[in-house]
Write a structure and sequence with these properties.
This protein is an all-beta fold and 125 residues long. The protein has no helices and eleven strands. It starts with a strand and ends with a strand.
Length: 125
């Protein structure tokens, strides 16, 4: 299971750090991703990180503002969000993709096996 936290209300230009803790075993065997879903919109990929944490990838909309990282000892993946904009308002979900080391980071919902419950991020203008 995945438990996401850290969401909240922040003014434009502010920062938040989301956390996602895994309770199951073998966390280090999963690529991890963050997605978000705004009201009335699809759930979109925003950031992903490989099992080892060496490689990351981002959606263009957040590149340069958001940073994904992980701590395998703590079974936790993080999303540091800086320079937040009103259009970043959404429910943010973490997800886990069982993958071999050399597999690319998935960018679609169907590639992920497990999902967290979501945490709301609201950015006021």
């Amino acid at each position: 299971q995945l438990q996401a936290s850290g969401g909240g209300l922040v003014q434009a230009g502010g920062s938040l750090r989301l956390s996602c803790v895994a309770t199951g075993p073998m966390f280090s065997r999963y690529h991890m991703g963050w997605f978000r879903q705004a009201p009335g919109k699809e759930r979109d990929f925003i950031a992903g990180i490989t099992r080892s944490g060496v490689t990351t990838t981002y959606a263009d909309s957040v590149k340069g503002r958001f940073t994904i990282s992980r701590d395998n000892d703590k079974k936790t993946v993080y999303l540091q969000m800086n320079g937040l904009l009103p259009e970043d308002t959404a429910v943010y979900y973490c997800a886990a993709d069982w993958a071999i080391t050399s597999a690319p980071i998935g960018r679609t919902k169907s590639e992920y096996d497990h999902w967290g419950q979501g945490t709301q991020v609201t950015v006021s203008s």
